Structure of CBM2 domain-containing protein:
Amino acid sequence: MRTRQIRSLLAVTATGVLAVTAAVLAPGAHAAAAGCQVAYTISSQWQGGFGANVTVTNLGDPINGWTLRWTFGTGQAVTQAWNATVTQSGTAVTAVNVSYNAALATGAGTSFGFNGSFSGANPVPTAFTLNGVTCTGGVVPSSPGPSTSPSPSTSTGTPPAKTVRVFWLKPTDVAFDQRYPDGITAVMREAQRYYRQELGKTFTLNSTVVETVTGEHDRNWYITTNCSGSDHYWCVVGNMHQELMRRFGIANPDSRWLVVGEISAEETNQSGGGASPGWVVLSGHDADGAAGINGPMNRWYGGMVHELGHAFGLPDSTSTDGTPMSASFYDYPNTHFSQSQKNAIMSGPYGSFLS
C-alpha cells in the first residue's frame, strides 16, 4: 500500500441527503424475496426551487419493472423529471421506470432525477416503497423460515456522535462476503486496543462496527471515473468518498464522526488510499487483507493504525523512526507512538473522541 496522505477530499454541495437501507417483509409465501435501498439527495436549491437525485437499489430477487412511491410535505411539487416517469397527486409522488432501466438484478441500482418547486420548508421524504414494499432495512426470503441470509446492505441509522464510523462499500458486481465486514471489524478492534495501549485512551466504535453499503456502480466505474489522465491512484477511493458523503450526509471533515471507508475495487498497482483529518479511505487490497485473502494480517493492522494517525491529525514521519507514522508500521505491533505524537493526537481536532 502506498501510504500517501490524500491530496484533497472534495466537499459535497448537496443540501440534504436521505439514505434508507432496507429489509422488508415478503407479502406472502410465494412472493419473491424483496428488499430495497433508496438514496434521495437534494443536489441544488434556489429560491422556491430545487433539484434532486434519487438512487434505488434492488436488494431482493431480480425485478423487471419498478414503481417507487413517496410522500412530500406540503408545498413541494415535481416540475420536470428524467430517467423515470414521475407523477404527483397531492403530496403523493410516483416514479416509474423507463424502458432502459426497468430490469434490476439483485444488488443492481438505477438513478433518476427531477426538478421541483417548494414553498416554506423543503424536507427530505422519510419513507419509500418499491413495487408496494416498504424500504426499511434488509432482505426477507420468499418462504418464511427461522433465519435469513446476510443482507448485502446494513445501516444502524445515525450513530452516536464522537465515534469512529466504518463503511465497506461493495460495488454492484461484487458478491456479498461476510469475511469482509468481519475482517474489517477485527482490524478496527485491534486498532482500538493499540490506541488504548499507547495513549491510555481509545476511540469508540459503533455497535455495528462495519456498515455494509451496496454501491451505486460496478467496479470499473469506481476505477475509471473522475480520474486525472492515467493516474488512477485516487479515483477509486475518491469516488467512494464522494458517494459516502452524499448518501449519508457526511462532511469533510465531520465533527460528529471520524470516518473509515474501504471499497472492494482497485486497479492493480494503480489504486491505493490514505487519510486526512477525519477520514480514512482505502481500496481493494486493504479490504482483501482485512478479510484474510491477501498478505499477513499484521500488515493490515499496522496500516490501519498508520492511517488512523493521519485521521487524528498526525503527519508522516520524516524517517523510519520506529513509530507507526513511518514505514515502521510494517513491523506492527513492534512500533510505538512517540510522546510528541501522543500529545498531538490528544490536542488535535479529534482528541476529544478518545476516552
